[in-house]
Design a protein that fits this description.
The structure holds 2 protein chains of 2 kinds.
Chain A: H1 7-14, E1 27-33, E2 38-46, E3 52-60, H2 63-76, H3 81-85, H4 89-96, H5 105-126
Antiparallel strand pairs in A: 1-2, 2-3
Chain B: H1 2-8, H2 12-17, E1 33-34, H3 45-57, H4 68-88, E2 96-99, H5 102-117, E3 123-127, H6 136-145, E4 148-152, H7 165-168, E5 172-178, H8 190-199, E6 203-207, H9 219-222, E7 226-230, E8 241-245, H10 247-252, E9 263-266, E10 271-273, H11 287-303, H12 305-324, E11 331-334, E12 345-350, H13 355-363, E13 367-368, E14 370-372, H14 377-382, E15 388-392, H15 399-415
Parallel strand pairs in B: 1-13, 3-4, 3-5, 5-6, 6-7
Antiparallel strand pairs in B: 2-8, 7-8, 9-10, 11-12, 12-15, 14-15
Helix pairs in contact in B: 1-11, 3-11, 4-11, 5-6, 12-15
Classes of the chains: A alpha+beta, B alpha/beta.
Chain lengths: 129, 419
């Protein structure tokens, strides 16, 4: 597990990309991990083609949850909402590039869950009626 | 019985040898450094053996059978109750009720005593540092009865502020307060709170889950009306706990759970109930674990509760001294920071390392600590903390464990590139 905390992980933890808020998000989702108190909020803007044109996340948590989210969110820009909904756990683990212990998988997957919730909210909003 | 335990207790090394799990190695081959006794304690061989012996030699239901092993089981079960009564200096064994744990004991009081005695507008007073188990049952009781909750404030160091206590006690029917904070280790001035609460006629429940394992408790000297504890935090098994209550209160209370064993006679229409303590023990009890808890008490008494406290106090002083070397690198300690005012708990954060990351890194060194909110979310909010890393000590910990903790923290600092 100590192999996990490599320089690029710590860099994403201390300097999370796309951290903050959008002025006018099209969809927002948030969640928390009640066991450790980690919180995360994702805000997305969607263009006419149904793709993520801008994205921000905010919250607080451990290096695993924050760095995993930062890398995932960065890669979500330009993706269609449908393709975000199709993302699996491997999309996080590929970014991280190392095995995560079972007890910390919840931390690593917090961002993925919130991102997909935001995409779902974006799709629901786009559907007429 | 206590002879077998005391024979092996001659110093720290031998105490470790009494606990089979402490001889185990982690998957990385590390010595197990167990610093999470505030969550649950490890068990000495005498306790594990007591469970084994019951099931192998005299497993039978209690209070019913006329045959030999049933009588033996009943005697052992009631003998364990008597040991608990003596351990807490209760007036009599009938004031000791077996429950699943401290949480169930609190719920028993909330439903039985609370349901019978609380009226709309009454005040339930708890402190700001309570474990959820000594808060949520009172929130639900307040909802059921129309009672109101008030809180004894804590300062930033986790010390209770008693200067407004008399005002808070106005209209108060019940005070529920921890004896020791599970998050910060603070030893609370329970005797003073009890005296001032009694002066206005309030009943006091003391949550001793974090105190009874670590110091001598005398419920009559405290004058607590109710005192609760969990066996698993004091060398006993999980699934068994205690409600101590004064006889006069317990006798006036209606049953909590109902069924077999708690009745005197039953007709199709109605029932009359058993005497104390069995009135509150519906159904077949957790016999094996109650008996094994008796063995845990034997072990603790052979060691001596004053010695437990002295050992942990010395360990805490040593830990504070060693950890002080890391404060310049951003180690923050919460709580009283004083071995005289604190039981064996150290709550901390290290620079910008999240408590969960700290716990993961320490885990690679075989060090078990707790990270999170410790079931005290309101207190964490009050102290403006999302999470802390908590190391907690017991009689089997030694200076080597503290040294390992410090080495582990230094490793975390290196991994996180702290200057």
């Amino acid at each position: 597990m100590d192999d996990f905390y490599r320089d690029f992980i710590l860099d994403h933890y201390r300097n999370p990309r796309n951290f903050g808020h959008l002025a006018e998000p099209d969809a927002v989702a948030e969640d928390r991990n009640p066991l450790c108190g980690d919180e995360m909020r994702v805000e997305i803007a969607v263009d006419d083609a149904g793709k993520v044109s801008d994205i921000r996340f905010s919250g607080k948590g451990c290096a695993i949850s924050q760095a995993s989210a930062s890398m995932l969110i960065e890669s979500a820009k330009g993706k269609s909402l449908e393709s975000i909904l199709a993302l699996g756990e491997e999309s996080v683990l590929e970014n991280v590039g190392i095995d995560i212990s079972p007890t910390r998988m919840k931390c690593a997957m917090l961002g993925l869950g919130v991102l997909k919730s935001a995409a779902l909210a974006g799709l629901a909003k786009a559907e007429p009626g | 019985m206590s002879g077998t335990a005391s024979a092996t207790i001659t110093g720290d090394r031998d105490v470790r040898a009494d606990f089979p799990i402490l001889g185990e190695r982690t998957s990385r081959g590390k010595r197990l450094v167990y610093l999470d006794s505030a969550a649950t304690s490890q068990k000495p061989a005498v306790v594990i053996d007591a469970i084994d012996r019951y099931y192998r030699e005299y497993n039978a239901n209690i209070h019913r059978g006329v045959y030999e092993i049933a009588a033996r089981a009943t005697d052992a079960f009631e003998d364990a109750r008597a040991k608990v009564a003596r351990f807490l200096n209760a007036g009599e064994s009938a004031e000791i009720i077996w429950t699943r744990n401290a949480t169930e004991a609190i719920n028993l009081v909330a439903w039985s005593w609370g349901g019978a005695n609380l009226r709309s507008g009454d005040v339930i007073l708890v402190s700001e540092l309570e474990h959820h188990s000594n808060l949520v049952p009172w929130q639900l009781l307040a909802e059921r009865t129309g009672a109101r909750l008030r809180f004894i404030p804590v300062d930033d160091r986790g010390e209770l502020q008693l200067d407004t206590l008399d005002a808070l006690l106005e209209g108060c029917a019940l005070v529920a307060v921890a004896h020791v904070s599970n998050t910060l280790g603070t030893i609370l001035p329970v005797a003073e709170i009890v005296a001032r609460a009694h002066a206005v006629g309030a009943v006091v429940l003391v949550d001793g889950a974090q105190a009874a394992p670590h110091m001598a408790v005398d419920v009559r000297a405290l004058d607590a009306d109710f005192y609760v504890l969990s066996a698993h935090k004091m060398l006993g098994p999980t699934g068994i706990g205690i409600l101590y209550g004064k006889r006069t209160l317990l006798e006036a209370m209606p049953p909590f759970l109902s069924g077999g064993d708690m009745i005197r006679s039953v007709s199709y229409e109605r029932s009359t109930f058993n005497d104390l303590p069995w009135k509150f023990e519906a159904g077949t009890s957790n016999i094996a674990d109650a008996i094994a808890f008796g063995s845990a008490i034997d072990y603790l008494e052979a060691y001596g509760m004053e010695n437990v406290r002295a050992h942990e106090r010395a360990l805490l002083a040593y830990a504070f001294e060693r950890l002080a070397t890391l404060e310049a690198r951003g180690l923050a300690l919460y709580g009283p920071h004083d071995p005289d005012r604190s039981s064996g708990v150290i709550s901390m954060n290290f620079a910008d390392i999240h408590a969960h990351d700290l716990a993961s890194i320490l885990d690679t060194e075989g060090i078990c600590i707790r990270a999170g909110h410790h079931c005290t979310m309101p207190l964490m909010g009050r102290l403006d903390l999302a999470a802390t890393a908590r190391a907690s000590f017991y009689l089997y910990n030694d200076r080597g464990d503290v040294d390992a903790l410090v080495t582990g923290l230094e490793k975390a600092a290196a991994i996180f590139r702290l200057s």
